[in-house]
Description:
The complex is a heterodimer.
Chain A: E1 5-7, E2 10-13, E3 19-24, E4 31-37, E5 44-50, E6 53-57, E7 64-68, E8 74-78, E9 87-94, E10 104-105, E11 109-113
Chain B: E1 4-7, E2 10-14, E3 19-25, E4 30-38, E5 45-50, E6 56-59, E7 62-67, E8 72-77, E9 86-94, E10 102-103, E11 107-112
Parallel strand pairs in B: 2-11
Antiparallel strand pairs in B: 1-3, 3-8, 4-5, 4-9, 6-7, 7-8, 9-10, 9-11
Amino acid sequence: DAGVTQSPTHLIKTRGQQVTLRCSPKSGHDTVSWYQQALGQGPQFIFQYYEEEERQRGNFPDRFSGHQFPNYSSELNVNALLLGDSALYLCASSLRTGLNTEAFFGQGTRLTVV
Amino acid sequence: QQQVKQSPQSLIVQKGGISIINCAYENTAFDYFPWYQQFPGKGPALLIAIRPDVSEKKEGRFTISFNKSAKQFSLHIMDSQPGDSATYFCAASAAYNTDKLIFGTGTRLQVFP
């Protein structure tokens, strides 16, 4: 089992550009959540996808959008990048059972906006 | 009300000692409290988790103590080892909001030989 895989590992973008980050969930998982982790901070919830729909959203602007594919993999898109978007972006997958279940995190994508 | 407050920010412990990290929450709807360990350049990995129907849970050298009335929970690492040096995050979520984890700010643990 490969666990949660994210790509790319590192990314450098210029302010104003757009970026797409990718996530493949752990085998058997159907729910993908995205988190932003600024340096020295805890992860902050961006949004969650289940059955190809955005189910929950944290306090992030519309510049942050996502998608989930039929194979449960997911993309995070960020438009009009700001310097403050520089962070580690984490994908977590879980199996929706109606109860809180263990979320498995990927290694993250380090995004640097210059 | 969605916050989880974590302390201390950093912790230095001698090898073999006990490391204690504390967290407090306000939202009484939270009913799942995991602890994550994160090494530099890696994603968080689940260490241990507890639900409010028990006051303590132990897995190996790691123990969660939970005080529902005080809305506090803590992680105890017994016989701390240099390999435990990492950043630890407490988190919380509610059954009505499954899988949305609210994280604390993290504790950087350094265990010296």
